[in-house]
């Protein structure tokens, strides 16, 4: 049998390094309580774009929207990146 836990924590928007540290702390805490698997919210590392429209109402994008989209993309992590290696 595997003990599974769910992390109710939210990420630190656009701060992947801080979110990685927060994830490690949550993993360590869950493990100290016997969890063997910890599930995080969708797009925990990087930034979940909830509420962000990227300035693109019905096929039209603004400069501010392009900047917001770029900022979100820059906060994303790669599966072979340092954040995953750290966890």
What is the element layout, followed by pairings?
Blueprint: E1 4-6, H1 16-32, E2 37-39, H2 63-75, H3 82-86
Parallel strand pairs: 1-2
Quick summary:
This protein has helices spanning 16-32, 63-75, 82-86, and strands spanning 4-6, 37-39. The chain has three helices and two strands, in the order βαβαα.
Could you explain how this protein is built, in words?
By secondary structure, this protein is mainly α. The chain has one domain. Helix content is 40%, strand content 7%. It contains three helices and two strands, in the order βαβαα. The chain has helices at 16-32, 63-75, 82-86, and strands spanning 4-6, 37-39. It has a two-stranded parallel ribbon. β1 (4-6), α1 and β2 (37-39) form a beta-alpha-beta unit. The longest helix is centred in the N-terminal third of the chain and has 17 residues, at 16-32. The relative contact order is 0.21.
How many structural domains can be distinguished in the coordinates? 1
This entry's quaternary arrangement is: single chain
The secondary-structure class comes to mainly alpha
Helix content percent band: 40-55%
Work out the helix count.
3
Tell me how many strands there are. 2
Provide the descriptors you would attach to this structure in a database record.
two-stranded parallel ribbon; 3 helices; 87 residues; mainly alpha; elongated
């Amino acid at each position: 049998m595997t003990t599974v836990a769910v992390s109710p924590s939210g990420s630190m928007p656009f701060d992947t390094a801080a979110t990685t540290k927060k994830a490690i702390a949550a993993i360590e805490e869950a493990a100290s309580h016997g969890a063997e698997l910890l599930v995080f919210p969708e797009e925990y590392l990087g930034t979940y774009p909830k509420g962000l429209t990227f300035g693109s109402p019905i096929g039209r994008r603004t400069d501010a929207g392009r900047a917001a989209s770029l900022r979100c993309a820059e906060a994303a992590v790669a599966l072979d990146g340092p954040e995953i290696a750290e966890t």
